Amino acid sequence: MIDFRDVTVSYPLPDGTVRKVYENLTLSIKQGEMAYVIGPSGSGKSTLMRMIYMDLKPDKGVVRVGEYRSDTITPKEIPYLRRTLGVVFQDFQLLPDRSVYENVAFALYATGKGGAAVKNRVMQVLGRVGLQHKWKRFPHEISGGEQQRVTIARAIANEPWILLADEPTGNLDPRVADEIQKLLISLHRQGMTLLMSTHDYRLVKKFPARTLALMKGQIVDVDAKTIGDVAKKGKGGRTVPAVTRSSAPTPAPRSVPTPRPMPPAAPSPGAPTTPKPTPGPAPDPTPPTLSRPANGHEEQETRKSTS
After folding, report:
1. pLDDT (tens digit, 9 = 90+) per residue, 110-126?
2. Where are the domains of the chain?
3. Spatial contact of 71 and 292, defined as CB atoms under 8 Å apart
4. Which of 9, 40, 99, 105 has the most C-beta neighbours closer than 10 Å?
């Protein structure tokens, strides 16, 4: 469950004024649900994502993700929250001097895993995105669509129950964008909660799901057929999208894992020091359990936040 209650977020401007991105925002996304977030550049799509993985806290109100709340979560708990999330970036954010295998493995090293467990898991997720045969390649040696598949493999390496996709097809041509969208939908149908921000209305109409439009600091459910008009105003300046829900079936949600503390993380992405393991396919290990630690054991975390 992702829940926003009366959330207000604002940014100071150079002239001393304040710009409100959201004001008294209330929104709920059920576990196992799929939803698009649409709106023009600067409307707050990335801000919404950042609040979900607690990179940004609201000025007022509460954001709740599973058992974690923005008003009570501690810095030591944030890395554990993020283990339940996978993030797919528009610009891929792959390490250029690391192979496909190493880019995916790094997400596992960051949570303290190593050895055969990493090798098995990396080859499994590369198989899920159709890139197991390119595990030795470097980012510059594969296409943009394949780089995005690597990003997705990295995002799901730790078996998250929420997948956040921030404009994942923005740099891809329509044919490749459709392939990536089908891959994301297949992961959703396996039980992941999928929240995807996009300005590609063609994609939303072709692969319909719940659609949330950002307008004047609020989010409203809209009919995918009307999304080209969500910025238009009716009489009195009111927005007039049709409120609806998609008829597409929602798969059975995956259960949130049982809490278990995890060992310390790997160093930052700028200077990874873990040696390259010798990869090779093997049986899939049992995925780790991910949730709030019982003993408050501290770890570092690697990530690159979106803007």
Report:
1. 888 888 999 999 999 99
2. 2-237
3. no
4. 105
